[in-house]
Amino acid sequence: MDESTMYNNTQSSILSLSGQASSGVSLLEQEVLDEYERLSKNMKELSSTLADLSSGPITLEIAEGLRLLERKVASVYTLMKASVYSIVLQQGQMEGGEQGDDGTGEADDDGRR
What we know:
Elements (H helix, E strand, L loop, with lengths): L2 H16 L8 H29 L4 H41 L13
């Protein structure tokens, strides 16, 4: 099964489900199906664009654009990891503070409140 057949099958099955909004599909489920439909269209467009790019010669302009895109993606990935680490660290500190606090305001044996 090639990619275009797979995308067409996915899209047709999503469309057949999304047409049944009045017969047992909730509003949230319908919104999820709509998002999957948009994602399917975007993936199909991306696949087509990548196929066009890969079939032709790679020019200096394309290579430079891809390098720039790679750097931007790497930067976003690093920032996302740092944000997640920060959130996990804050939650760990909050949980650690709650466990060490007995509500009396007095310090424990090791000097913590």
